[in-house]
Specification:
- There is one protein chain.
- The protein has three helices and two strands.
- By secondary structure, it is mainly alpha-helical.
- A two-stranded antiparallel sheet has the order 1-2.
- Strand 1 and strand 2 form a beta hairpin.
Length: 90
């Protein structure tokens, strides 16, 4: 985001200093979301799962932030997408 947007959100002050927000992650926290599933022995062999905040994400529920949408867990839809993509590659 540019500085103007960050100021509008209250995420930086007039000097350009970051004002921590509970809904924003630091660079390190954001990076950890990719590094954990890619490199941690804790999740070795785990596939087809979604992670958020460095733990496996639960299915989404009404009124609760986060979680995995039901359509993302639909095995038949995943198989159809795999077949479609494989066919497109020849």
């Amino acid at each position: 985001m540019d500085d103007a947007t960050m100021r509008e959100m209250g995420a930086i002050d007039e000097n350009g200093e970051i004002i921590p927000q509970p809904y924003l992650k630091t660079v390190a926290q954001g990076a950890a979301a990719s590094v954990l599933p890619a490199a941690s022995p804790v999740v070795e062999g785990v596939t087809g799962r979604y992670f958020e905040d460095n733990q496996e994400a639960p299915p989404a529920a009404p009124g609760i932030a986060g979680g995995v949408a039901a359509h993302a867990l639909d095995r038949d839809a995943a198989d159809r997408l795999w077949d479609y993509g494989s066919a497109a590659l020849g």
